[in-house]
Amino acid sequence: MKLSTRDIQLFVGGALALTGFRALIWLPYYYAVSLDFGRIISFMITGLALPIGIAILMGRASAVTLAQIYLWLMIISGFVVVPIFCYFVPATSSHLLWAAIPEMLVSIVLLVVIYWSRSRRFKHEPDA
Prior knowledge:
Largest sheet: none
Helix content: over 70%
Number of helices: 5
C-alpha cells in the first residue's frame, strides 16, 4: 500500500484535532479548580488545533497551509517562551520543560510530515 498526500494530510489532521480536543477538554478543570490563567490561555491557543484538524479532515486545501502556520507559530513560541519562563521562574522550570518539550516535538514532527507530503515523491501520484 502506497501513501498518498491525502493519507498523510489525514494523519496530520487527526493528530491536530486530537491535540486541540485534549486541550479543550482540560479547560473547564483549570478554569474551575485552579484558575491558572497561564494554562488556560495556553490550552485555548492549543485548542485552535481542533478546527484546523477538522478542516483538514474535511478536505479543505487552505487548512493544510493554516496548519503549517499554526505549527510554525507553536514551535517558534515554544523556543521563545520556554527559555524566558525558565529564566524568570527557575523553581518550576523543570515542570514546564516536561510539559512543553514533548508538545514542541509533536509540532515539529507534524510539520516535517506536512512538508514530506508536499515533496516531489508525492507530486505525480494521484490522490485517492
